[in-house]
Design a protein that fits this description.
By secondary structure, this protein is of the alpha/beta class. The chain is built from six helices and nine strands. Helix 3 packs across helix 4. The structure holds adenosine monophosphate (AMP).
Length: 181
């Protein structure tokens, strides 16, 4: 079995969670396997470790909460700092907020106003790219704070929901794609 097959095998489908009709991608079996987890982090970081123009990253932003699990080790691999993108009301200092729509209604995410600087190139990390509404809201926040979005890195892309169509010209990298062309 290849490393990628091992990673796929450790992503568990849980049907009808959190609602009927949703197939939840449960990453906890992957997290409990140290070699496969490390391989997944390596794969998420690799596209951003090249000298290719446009791939420079000066900060990683992880989306609460599973984006923290992947974002922190990716930031460490890239030797850059980490910015938590949090749900409303969780950050202690001056924050900026972005509203967006999820499948089940409106939501709000926030970052500290001083989390990024003009000139920063920020990689946005999450576990799953589904509709990409959350990722786009995070990108809007990073832009509002004056930094540039370098791209997105996800462990899992739900291709059948076409998240890339929402993310336009941004660079998008995912380790495993379920469904889609
Ligand atoms: P979206 O904004 O639709 O791309 O949803 C992305 C966010 O919702 C991510 O933070 C994921 O953790 C979570 N998510 C959406 N769909 C799923 C799914 N099928 N399985 C696990 N997590 C999901």
């Amino acid at each position: 079995m290849t490393g990628m097959d091992v990673i796929c095998d450790l992503i568990r489908d849980v049907e009808d969670f959190p609602e009927p009709g949703i197939v939840f991608k449960d990453i906890t079996p992957l997290l409990s396997d140290p070699e496969a987890f490390a391989a997944a982090i390596d794969a998420m970081a690799a596209p951003w470790l090249t000298a290719e123009p446009g791939r420079e990253v000066t900060k990683v932003a992880g989306i609460e909460s599973r984006g923290f699990i992947f974002g922190v080790p990716v930031a460490q691999r890239l030797s850059v700092g980490f910015v938590p993108v949090r749900k409303q009301g969780k950050l202690p200092f001056d924050s900026i907020a972005q509203d967006y729509n999820r499948e089940y209604g409106p939501d709000t995410i926030e970052i500290h106003a001083d989390a990024v600087d003009v000139g920063d190139r920020v990689l946005i990390v999450d576990d799953v790219l589904a509709t990409a509404g959350t990722a786009l809201a995070a990108a809007t926040l990073i832009g509002a704070a004056g930094a540039t979005v370098a791209g997105f890195s996800a462990l899992i892309e739900l291709g059948f929901l076409a998240p890339r169509s929402l993310l336009g010209d941004f660079a998008v990298e995912s380790v495993v794609v379920f469904g889609g062309d």
